[in-house]
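Internal QA ticket QA-208
Title: Verify multi-chain structure generation after dependency bump
Assignee: T.L.

Test input:
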Amino acid sequence: MDELMKILQELRPDVDFEKETALITDGILDSFDIVALVGELNDAFDIEIKPNNLVPENFNSAKAMMALIEKLQDE
Amino acid sequence: MQTSVLERLDASAARYADKVMFKDPEQSLTFAQFDRLTKSIGTYLIGVTKPGDPVAVMSGRHVFTPACFLGAVRAGCFYAPMDGDMPKARLNQILSVIQAPNLLVDRAHLEMAQTLDYDGNIIVMEDIMETAADEALLSARAATLVSTSPLYVIFTSGSTGKPKGVITSHLSLMTYIDSVCKVLDINDTDIMGNQSPLDYIAAVRDIYFPVSRGASTFIIPKNEFAVPTALFATLNREKITALCWSVAGVELPAKLGAFDEGKPEYLKKLCFSGSVMPCKYLKIWQEHLPDVLYVNQYGPTEATASCTYYVVKEKVDDDTVLPIGKPYDNYRIMLLNDDNTPTPDGEIGQICVSGPILALGYYGNKEVTDASFIQNPLNANYRELIYKTGDLGRWGGDGNLMFHGRMDRQIKHLGHRIELGEIEETARLVAGVKDCCALYYKEKATLYLFYTGEATSKEIVLYFRANMPAFMVPRKLVNLDEMPALPNGKTDMQALKAMFR
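Actual output:
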């Protein structure tokens, strides 16, 4: 989780990732944030995020992103 | 010959009355409904404006926003669109340049509008939508327009740290729309999928193809671009046939692997512009959609959206470099050397444009206008203005123009035009930043800021987020003990570029 928070804070220091739970739904992260984030997460956690993983439920909060990362690491 | 876009709107409203003109996920407007709305808004605005006034418009991504634009035109005025998602400081800068007596907003933006440094009249669109149209007043105001009257002012980055408002006339816009429609064969069976923010130059196609050709436009919600499968599902649900997107927008679905899950089944035409297309992404589109017409466009806002086009007939490879092609009808392109002599074929020179598509200049800025729009140095006999784009080009052997980058420090990032100088001017306003240099790492589409001083990267990013559009916020910040310098004392940009990672 620490590593994820570090990546998120570097990407968007203006966002409180501890609290936000509608990052995509509310448009806080835009498409270009997502492109940058997907690349960083794939590298940092040695996973491959697929297009069908790119749904709001998986990226609306830091917790949801962590759950996705763990799921993909188990596969 | 038409004097204004209103003649086109009148004609299409009569011909396509019950057809959908604009649609968003919440609602849609038919041509008749849209037309009536512009007349209601126009009639109200006539009461509070003089002919030829600017009307600032700040409204969201929905079907009523284009109605506000055309409503202002119905009042014999021109519109200056503003993106309400931009930071307050930026909006204040735009308002200080345009000096509009009236600001038209949707209710969702009212609260924000009231916090701006603006002492003019704020009008809420929802409050005036039911105004009874007064045809006599509307005709009188329409008669004040000539084809060279301003239609809109669109703001773009300026190197001195202040945005520049590019003024486009009815004539220029209609000329461009007719030329691009011919190439893309846009007609009343087309359904456009709008990607561009509605305040941005690229949206003129999505707004004026319906007005001019009876096409329909669906306004795609912004956050669908972050969810590629939802994006393609929307294109299919709405049976979208034509897309005029920024290169960055075309790259997105290919980059995020959207084609693994499906494809836009109804798409016939894809035109892209804004920056150089990396062909490894275009290749993915071509492989999945071989029968689509692909058109590469080039051109600055100052020459009404695009000057040249290239129809991509060949199958591209990862390393294909697309030409920017041939001039659109009614656009003249010439290449000039630094000493204002003509550039011989096969050599690189500055791309200069002339024709009825030249902007009327920068709003309220004679100095920069006079420096950018100049008398054609090759014509000593009569007045002929040209616009020097600052872009470099070369005529290829096949008569197609090739693009060779910029002469200055202007870049294209995420489809937007940015002056690196403006990033630096902004960074210098942050407490604790001493010296700085903004650079663009093109291969990774990343905006870098190198700086000295004790400011933290977080402080700098927060300042940018509060004052600049999101696309102008540096992604990577590098704090240095001192700036590498060349023997002449200037910043050594090559040494900084070596730090890209």
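Spot checks passed. The first helix of chain A runs from residue 2 to 11.
Status: verified.
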